[in-house]
Amino acid sequence: MTWIRGGPTSLDSQNIAEAIDGSLHRLGVDYIDLYQIHWPDRYVPMFGKTEYDPSCQYTSVSMEEQLEALGRAIDAGKIRYIGLSNETPYGMMKFLQLSKDFQLRSKLLTVQNSYNLLCRNFDSGLAECCHHERISLLAYSPMAMGILSGKYHSSYDCGPPEARMNLFKGRYSEGESRYKLQSPKVKLAVKEYTQIAEKYGISPATLAIAFVLRHPLVSSAVFGATKLRQLYEVLQAARIHLPEEILAEINDVHTRFPNPCP
């Protein structure tokens, strides 16, 4: 990522300090309310990988150094609260333990991980951590990069050419490794979720967003909209309540096609 400070390779204290100062300058603000580490500076299976391989571990910046840098920014009034992203239960609990050891003035408040109908890994381990430690999930990719709208599987040409997975094909390896458009399991799961939405008279996009928002540990869903109708579908999702019969049908599909996009 050479466009970010020449391509930093680690989350060392210098990079964290430069990133914070750069954001303050570009935003033209005195402080940042919530500052999150984008992903772990250590080996973690993610973006389609599910099995931990100890041999893949590499020398990385310690969590202690990261927290010291964030603590200095908090003490300087540059940021108020901190969060994590793409984290594991181990990582979250270790950061919490160290933040108490360092007596940080601001508590760890959030974790921003993927959560959607095709990826419910959060419920397996992180959910318990978040519940007991009072940490909120900021659910990113609630639409699974638009796949849950059904647009990629509504025709034989893999969706409209202006759709993100087509427009930037080959340029987003993390997304493409997780959201495999040609996967039979993904196709079947999306088809069934789309049929549930149609059965109850709502759009597939609204169903997908509403499912994420009904989770008691989700405080926000991070979405993107390029058209007004897409924004309308998201706003509709914030207004509806999914009854138990819809959730039962969703869970039935999930049982048969569990987490095809981990």
UniProtKB/TrEMBL annotation:
GO terms for molecular function: oxidoreductase activity. InterPro entries: AKR, NAD(P)_OxRdtase_dom_sf, NADP_OxRdtase_dom. Residues 5-253 form the NADP-dependent oxidoreductase domain. This is NADP-dependent oxidoreductase domain-containing protein.
